[in-house]
Amino acid sequence: MSKKEDIKNEETVEEITETAENGACAEETAEEQQVEPTPEEHIATLEAELEKEKREYMFLMAEFDNFRKRTLREKAEIIQNGAENAMRNILPIIDDFDRAIQATTTSEDVAAVREGVELIYNKFIKYLESNGVKEMITTGENFDADIHEAVTTFPAPSEDLKGKIIDTVQKGYSINDKVLRHAKVVVGQ
């Protein structure tokens, strides 16, 4: 090769090298610009994300508030309807008591009136039991402060009655294994 061709080849190699280096620098600069946004763009992006999160938060708060109000309204309706059903089922028993009272004014047969009142009483007890209300058995049982209320103590007639209930002043009732009314009792001492 001649010297001219060598020089031309060297210039071409240098040009290619420079062009490649410039191209690589241009690519790096473009990548840097794409990867790292300007501070203003970054702030704008963050503000947009913040607004989106605020909207979602407000939506969730409103939804929860509606849920809370709906739940309270449903609870009130359940309580009201529960009382309504309970009272509706007691009305036949009240009707029976009305008939019994009318019978006492015209009837002179005390045994028949007593039998009618006992039937009404039994009907009412069955109604209570069907709704989970049970009478507590107390006399002769061990005293339990969780379900009994000691009105007084009395000397026990025998040793085996110490700490036990001798008499029941007022019956106690439970509803679904929860004390509805404590039994008032006399405890042997």
Describe this structure in words.
The protein has three helices and six strands, in the order αααββββββ. With 189 residues, it is of the alpha+beta class. The chain has two domains: 55-131, Alpha-Beta Complex (Hemagglutinin Ectodomain, Chain B); 134-189, Nucleotide Exchange Factor Grpe, Chain A, domain 2 (Roll). The protein has a three-stranded antiparallel beta sheet with strand order 1-4-5. A three-stranded mixed beta sheet has the order 2-6-3, with no helix packed on it. A hairpin with a 2-residue loop joins strand 4 (173-175) and strand 5 (178-181). It is elongated. The chain starts with a helix and ends with a strand. The model has no long low-confidence stretch (mean pLDDT 84).
Q: N-to-C SSE series?
A: HHHEEEEEE
Low-confidence stretches: none
Looking at how many chains there are and whether they match, the oligomeric state comes to single chain
Largest sheet: 3 strands, antiparallel
CATH architecture of the largest domain: Alpha-Beta Complex
Q: Which percent band covers the strand fraction?
A: 15-25%
Record field, number of beta strands: 6
- Which fold does the CATH topology of the largest domain refer to? Hemagglutinin Ectodomain, Chain B
Shape: elongated
Give the total of domains. Answer: 2
Strand line-up of the largest beta sheet: 1-4-5
The count of helical stretches stands at 3
